[in-house]
Design brief:
Blueprint: H1 2-5, H2 16-29, H3 33-41, H4 59-68, H5 75-89, H6 98-108, H7 115-136, H8 165-172
Helix pairs in contact: 2-3, 2-5, 2-6, 3-5, 4-6, 5-6, 6-7
């Protein structure tokens, strides 16, 4: 569950939806140029491009694009993706990331816009399971974060909290609660 939870949001995992919608629009319009121009003109990021970790090409995208080359139904979406990258490169030399590659897959196969998130999560599942199995083989709680409090010294003795109005009423009514 923790692994799936980190995929929520446009920066990790859920970024493939906007890439899908942009690519779908480019395919429908027959050109990525006006779609990219609209993003750039309005100051929006072009989805599916650039990655904080991969400054050059995203190897995951490169691999998926290569696999999609052999899928005839992907030809139109692949061409549109190349046009997105080429058009954007005139303004900002960003490389395609895995979200654009997942968009090519989902657009070419008629999947919904959020299908890329599911494919992304499924691809991570084997790694998550491997991590869990590795943890089961270790002694529990072997990581003990330590710290030292450096704030003001608390009053001695510690004051007791004042009773709430509800507690005062309950005590005065003779209730057993």
């Amino acid at each position: 569950a923790a692994g799936l939870g980190v995929l929520e949001g446009p920066l990790h995992g859920a970024a493939s939806g906007p890439a899908h919608r942009m690519l779908r629009e480019a395919v429908d319009r027959g050109s990525a140029v006006p779609v990219v121009a609209d993003h750039l003109r309005t100051g929006r990021r072009v989805p599916g491009l650039g990655h904080r970790l991969y400054r050059g090409e995203d190897p995951r995208a490169t691999t998926l694009f290569a696999l999609l080359e052999d899928v005839p139904q992907a030809a139109g979406a692949l061409a549109a993706a190349r046009e997105v990258v080429g058009t954007t490169a005139r303004h900002d030399p960003l490389h395609a990331n895995i979200d654009l590659a997942l968009a090519v897959l989902s657009v070419s196969r008629g999947m919904p816009a959020d299908a890329g998130e599911t494919v992304f999560a499924v691809s991570r599942t084997a790694g998550w399971i491997a991590h869990a199995l590795e943890e089961y083989g270790e002694r529990p709680l072997r990581i003990r974060p330590s710290g030292q409090y450096t704030g003001p010294r608390p009053p001695q003795p510690l004051p007791l909290p004042a009773p709430s109005a509800q507690q005062v009423r309950t005590r005065g009514s003779g209730s057993a609660n």
